[in-house]
Amino acid sequence: MSSGQPSDSKEPRADLLREEEEEEESDEDRCSSRPTSPQAGRGGAGTQVSWELEAATDGGTGSGDRGSSAADSLFAWICKRTVRRGPFVDPARDNFRNMTRLYSSMSPATDSVNLSTQTHGAVFNLEYSPDGSVLTVACEQTEVLLFDPVSSRHIKTLVEAHEDCVNNIRFLDNRLFATCSDDTTIALWDLRKLNSKVCSLHGHASWVKNIEYDTHTRLLVTSGFDGNVITWDTNRFTEDGCPHKKFFHTRYLMRMRLTPDCSKMLISTSSGYLLILHDLDLTQSLEVGSYRILRSRRAPLSTEGSSAGSRSGGSRHTIDSKTHPHREGKPLICEGLSPRNSLEVLTPEIPGERDRGNCITSLQLHPKGWATLLRCSSNMDDQEWTCVYEFQEGAPPRPPVSPRCSLRLTHYIEEANVGRGYIKELCFSPDGRLICSPYGYGVRLLAFDEQCGELADCMPVRTALLREIRSIYSHSDVVLTSKFSPTHCQFASGCLSGRVALYQPHF
């Protein structure tokens, strides 16, 4: 060696270990586009301690047994890996490479469920049970189909589940589930006794389009094209139904969703508005005076307001002071109620359509409650987009005229716009890293970056394009719905001709 000192064959071994660890750290650093998180900072502190420990074992004087030093270095390297992968680091982040490989290799299963029997019609909705043991299929021609998603085995067909199209299915637990239909009713079913309904619920005046469930209060929440959002007390249901009340009403209602913690309700409309009820209390009933509240003028923005509006991802609407002078400069809150159910009205920014009048056809929420996922079409119905909007709970205070501004457009991508007039239901993966979006005669797996990172780890400063991980074309007709399994590395899609395809990794 140039120093003239004898070398030890074991010393390069420790150096190689250090180099390997540094290379692995650099790989992990590249997967995040955000600054190092506090958790990562703690991990770095632990790393420094481990290397100080290594220096201490050498005695700090440069003397001592070389073999012992190498052994201590190896011990310190293992200790470093242990500390870095300790409770301060989310273990799921170490597996993102494996998950990316798995989802990138997704292909239609050879034993996919083929339901092209001409009896049930188009597939409008797919829903897995919470334990992933049952896949339910809502069909156009009054039927509900049940399958084992692992074996693709048919379990049961509910031939006359409703008297018209079945639109949506929601599991309340691993056994009890609800279905809704264009026949204006909701039905409750028990997997242990599928020969008959548990009960039928009557209260809507038009097509019932989707179902949500508040696990805290055990209230079933439904919405329909009659503009009503109705709550049903499942704690007191009987064979004749269960107590219900109208919770909210608005015109042009398309979809309604609850956030995972049930603290907010989001409502999309065919006129392009998005309604957000904050600090949700489903035990109250909201009475909105008239629809002109939702049709109020676009608030004029000052220089400060313009920057806030661009960050919010949508234009904020306030009440016209001539019509409601007592509400000027205040949050939009339904009269006579506590601020727990304050109502915010937004026109989400759409990349290709700056004017109002877009139709928000599909509405989903991130499984961790970080963002909302919208499928939007232009008012001319000639373009279609998938957009992700971040909830800005910790945003800086807004001007008094615009106190909340909760959403910011972070990612988007243009869709194929095939099958006009049909609603395409997209979905998040259980960990929130991927989006499965119907795309013509197939589906696309979309992510926030190339490594399928967490949304929180790759939040762009400016609006960015969603990254296409994989496109799969496995149908002979327009795909209308998709759904990830909550427990298996699997997802399903259903199309207009009635076929359901299951997808799993191909090894």
Automatic annotation (TrEMBL):
Residues 18-28 have a biased composition (Acidic residues). It holds the Pfam family WD40. WD repeats lie at residues 159-192, 201-233. Keywords: Repeat, Ubl conjugation pathway, WD repeat. Pathway: Protein modification; protein ubiquitination. Residues 8-17, 317-330 have a biased composition (Basic and acidic residues). InterPro entries: DCA10, WD40/YVTN_repeat-like_dom_sf, WD40_repeat_dom_sf, WD40_rpt. SUPFAM superfamilies: WD40 repeat-like. Residues 305-316 have a biased composition (Low complexity). One of its GO terms (cellular component) is Cul4-RING E3 ubiquitin ligase complex. Residues 1-48, 302-333 are annotated as: Disordered. SMART domains: WD40. May function as a substrate receptor for CUL4-DDB1 E3 ubiquitin-protein ligase complex. Belongs to the WD repeat DCAF10 family. This is DDB1- and CUL4-associated factor 10. The lineage of its organism: Eukaryota, Metazoa, Chordata, Craniata, Vertebrata. The gene is LOC113057033.
